[in-house]
Amino acid sequence: MRQLMSIEATDALIAVAISGFLRATEDKVNWADKGSIVDSSLEELDESLVRHHMMTADELSDTHVHLDALQRGRQLYRRCADLKMPLEGQALPSYFVAGEFNCLADDRRVGWHPDFESLFPKGG
User: How far apart are CA 100 and CA 49, in angstroms?
Assistant: First the structure.
C-alpha cells in the first residue's frame, strides 16, 4: 500500500485496495486448494494485467502531460482497478482484478507512481 500512499491516494481508496488485495489473495489460495484453476491461468492473467498497466501508463504519459506525477498515478490506478477481465472464461468478482493489480504492485511488477521503479526498487 506504500505505492498508493506515494500517489496520495485517499484513505477510502486505500481501504478498498487493501480489502481487494486480501480477498484476491484468499481467492487464489482457495481456488488452488480446490483445484478450481490452473496455475498457468493466473500467470496469463498477470501477464495481461502487466501489459495493460504498461500500455495505460504509456498512454497517460502522452495524453496527460498537464497532470503532475501524483495525479497521473491516481489516474493510472483508477483505470487499472476498473478493468474487467475473465479467468478461464469466467467472470471474476469485481474486487479481484484490482486486488491482483495490488499483488503485482506489491511484487513491484507494476506501480502507480510514474517513478515507482526508483522509489520502490525490487528487493528494497
Answer: 8
Q: Distance of alpha carbon 80 from its chain centroid, rounded?
A: 6
Q: What's the pTM value of the predicted model, to 2 decimals? A: 0.91
d(CA 102, CA 78): 12
Residue 5 has which C-alpha cell? 500512499
Domain boundaries defined on the chain: 2-119
**Rounded CA gap, 55 and 53, in Å?**
6
User: pLDDT tens, position by position, for the chain (124 residues)?
Assistant: 899 999 999 999 999 999 999 999 999 999 988 888 887 899 999 999 999 999 999 999 999 889 999 999 999 999 999 999 999 888 999 999 999 999 999 999 999 999 999 999 887 6
- How many CB atoms are closer than 10 A to CB 114? 18
Cell matching residue 66: 498537464
